[in-house]
Amino acid sequence: MHKQYTKKASEVLLPMPRHIEDHDGVFRIHETTSIAADPLFCDVADFAAKSLNCKRGGEDILFKRNTQLGEEAYQLSVTKNQIVIKSESSCGAFRALSTLRRLALTMDNLIPCCIMEDSAEYAWRGFMIDSSRHYFSTEFIKKIIDIASLFHLNRFHWHLTDDQGWRIPSTRWPKLQTISARRRKLQYMNDVYYGRCYTREEILDIQEYAHQRQMLVIPEFDSPGHVSALLAAYPEFGCTTGPYEV
Fold first, then answer.
1. Is the model's pLDDT at 2 over the cut of 50?
2. All domains in the chain, ordered by first residue
């Protein structure tokens, strides 16, 4: 038996939409809830069905197009019988879905009835992961992307090279994988190394994963400073002969 929540949508949402009106009642999302969408939003509707554990077909949750809204703007209406999302683009539809998912997670799938309108105040809303100083698995990075997308972040700044490690594969400079990507696990452990490069396939997979969540991946290559990892493998590129360490 689900607990009956008394909180309103305006009391639990973060970030807050630009405009919200709370109403009485709730819409319950469950496994028989059905989702339909304008053809433009089919990918978002498929994502919604998977993330909300619903099914495609009916119009319990309906994605409609409104060409008067901006790129990331949306309107979200929740009644006891239906949820209607209106947006101009897939990006706006996904932002609305992210808001709906936050409510579902917070309210145990009991969505408070409300009407809201929202749009982006800042075009660039980013976060950074430093994979150079500490190698993070692609599974971990995907989890962070999932969380960030729930809060409408749209830029993933991926710090991939620094003095402490090189994470980009190269067929022309193979020592970047064998030397630049590895360092001593602790300073006093001379023979214990850790680290690796991401493969080309892993990087493309992360890029596609972020793209599906309306997020742009921005890889960072440090140069001409912060290149000790590179110079450890290719000291001839340095201003001195070294020695250089990762």
1. no
2. 9-118 (3.30.379.10), 126-237 (3.30.750)
